Amino acid sequence: MMVMREYFRSSMSMGETNSEHVYRLAFWHRLWTNWIEIRKKLRIKNVNDFIRRLESGSFNLNLIESLIKPTEDDITFIMKLLSQGISIIPITDDAYPQNLKSLDDGEIYPPLVIYCKGSLDILKAEKCIAIVGTRFCTNWGREVTRRLVKAIYDRIHDAIIVTGLARGIDTEATKTALDYDLRTIAVLPWLKPIYPPENRDLAKMIIKKGGVLISERINEPISLSERRRQLYLRNRIISALSNVVIVIEARLHYIGNGKYSGGAMWQVEYALKRGKPVFVLEPKYKAFRRGRIWVNYRKAFEEFVRHGAQPFKEDQIEKVVGEIVNLMGRY
């Protein structure tokens, strides 16, 4: 049996047997799935605090083992995931994306474990462009998304398109990217089952064409509130993995005190706080059937710009891509 300190090795090392490897992954999986309870018992603030204390050697490792010791069911579950081609990547693993690991501003923290299916090398790619937007997009928004992805392909053949694989703009961006053989990263709220269900075939195509599916949760949460929470939380992962974020049509919800909320707003704020460029498409009035719907999209656009996003119109796609090309030269 492995000694406690070996659970935190960076990856499957020379001399580690397959059973030890599975046991180590089961340990991390159990730690992450019971994180809230274990964090309280160990008096840990967040994931980053856990890693800092782990590296400093201030933990009682025997206490951690007593709290997290994997069961036979845990080990069986991990073996099943591995047999399905799913990778379990702890934050100490070499395969864990550095951009995601550095996600720390006091409130936002990286996942302790990520679950992936597909090509892991793409997680460390440098030319990653996130294209996100509303599920309730217009036909015009879809068209602009297709034109944008084609323009990216024409100028940056090795670009990686990052989306949340949500309905609407994310789906359109993913489909178009695959049409041009651009590799894609789909950041899901949970890995099983694929959400939304109508994108299951699209998810398979992402893997087939050298992309990857990634999530911080393996299974769909039972409660509605937790499902909604995961839909929001995945935005920080999209932002962390991307060098540039582009928003095509988005809506916001007024939450009082002059503040608005929404998945796209989280996405924009995450990116801007880390000094990443954010471009936002100006909504087209004629694309909407009712003016009052356009008002919401327009308000979202104005909020993004107010926070620091760079606005652009549909006839400025080439200009935006040109700016992205220049930015990519820095990476």
Description of the structure:
This protein is of the alpha/beta class and 331 residues long. The protein has two domains: 4-87, no CATH class; 122-328, Rossmann fold (3-Layer(aba) Sandwich), CATH 3.40.50. 46% of the residues lie in helices and 15% in strands. It has helices spanning 18-33, 35-42, 47-56, 61-68, 72-83, 98-101, 139-155, 169-179, 200-208, 224-241, 263-273, 291-307, 317-328; strands spanning 86-90, 113-118, 128-133, 160-163, 183-187, 212-215, 244-248, 253-256, 259-261, 278-281, 310-312. It has a nine-stranded mixed β-sheet with strand order 1-2-6-5-4-3-7-10-11, with helices on both faces. The protein has a two-stranded antiparallel sheet with strand order 8-9. It is globular.
Beta-strand residue percentage = 5-15%
Helix content: 40-55%
Number of domains: 2
* Widest sheet: strand ordering: 1-2-6-5-4-3-7-10-11
Radius of gyration: 21 Å
What separation lies between the terminal Cα atoms?
43 Å
Number of β-strand runs:
11
Average predicted local confidence, pLDDT: 88
Q: Multimeric state of these chains?
A: single chain
Order of helices and strands: HHHHHEHEEHEHEHEHEEEHEHEH
Largest sheet: 9 strands, mixed
**CATH architecture descriptor text of the largest domain:** 3-Layer(aba) Sandwich
The SS-based structural class is: alpha/beta
How many individual helices? 13
Low-pLDDT stretches: none
Q: Find the CATH topology of the largest domain.
A: Rossmann fold
**What is the general shape?**
globular
CATH class of the largest domain: Alpha Beta
